[in-house]
Amino acid sequence: MNIENWNAGLSRRRSLQLAAFSSAMWSVPGVFAEQLATPSTTEGPFYPDQLPVDTDNDLLILNDSLTPAVGQVTWLSGIVRTLSGQPVRNAFVEIWQVDNRGSYLHKGGRTDRGIDAGFQGYGRFLTDSSGKYTFRTIRPVRYQAGNTVRAPHIHVAVSQNGRRLLTTQVLIADDPDNDADGVLKAIRDPRLQELIVVPFRPLPGSRLGELTAQFDITLGMTPADADADVRGGISPPARRR
């Protein structure tokens, strides 16, 4: 797939292109030692209060618009696994984040800079048989409202069989705001902190300044262990919180 000649056509076609990109970027290793589970974090108050009509895994193009969102294009991809290293198929991965102006897709999470009407703000993807997922989004910027400042981050949630298994966030390695970020500091174990702080590297061969970030997710619970109260885009509206 030629990323630089991105086709802003039908959403279905974009989703197929993104899936192909994911398959080309990541491979699933063999059996490996049991590892630490990805730490959970707060969901935060700004999960979209109204989901966009377009909820695919390309957050830069709304529906069939020809005008992309503003920001540094970033390919966020990874593999969802169990603690024993087995890929998790049909895991429902959601992401949401601020736009380039620092505003969420939530009425209470907008800054005085307004919103980027071309940014989807939310996306979702169902992992394939190898546990892989991918999103095309923008490099997150810091969120600031009054005295509240958050380091650039992307919210991530994983559900399966109608139950939320993990709510977490991914932050950018070496970002200067990380040292004072309250959510990151709340994770006391440095080893667990490292699991949600990943490099955002230049995409090889891109002349558009695109980035790539690999965020692998290790689940510490199964649907049977999960809380029965479903949250997120897979739940009935009355039960979202």
Question: What does this entry look like structurally?
Answer:
By secondary structure, this protein is α/β, with parallel strands linked by helices. It has a single domain (10-27, 36-221), classed as Aromatic compound dioxygenase (Protocatechuate 3,4-Dioxygenase, subunit A, Sandwich). Helix content is 10%, strand content 25%. The chain contains 3 helices and 12 strands; from the N terminus they run αββββββββααββββ. The protein has helices at residues 11-25, 182-185, 190-195, and strands spanning 73-81, 92-96, 122-126, 132-138, 143-145, 148-150, 153-160, 163-172, 197-198, 201-202, 211-214, 217-218. Strands 1, 4, 10, 11 and 12 form a 5-stranded mixed beta sheet that branches. The longest helix is centred in the N-terminal third of the chain and has 15 residues, at 11-25. It is globular. The N and C termini lie far apart (38 Å). Residues 1-10, 27-33 and 235-241 have low confidence and may be disordered.
Helices and strands, in order, run as HEEEEEEEEHHEEEE
Q: How many beta strands in the DSSP annotation? A: 12
Name the beta content range: 15-25%
Number of DSSP helical runs: 3
Our measurement of the CA-to-CA distance between the termini, rounded to an integer number of angstroms, reads 38 Å
Number of domains: 1
Q: What is the annotated CATH architecture?
A: Sandwich
Structural class computed from helices and strand pairing: alpha/beta
Average pLDDT, all residues: 85
Describe the structure in brief.
The protein is of the alpha/beta class. It has helices at 11-25, 182-185, 190-195, and strands at residues 73-81, 92-96, 122-126, 132-138, 143-145, 148-150, 153-160, 163-172, 197-198, 201-202, 211-214, 217-218.
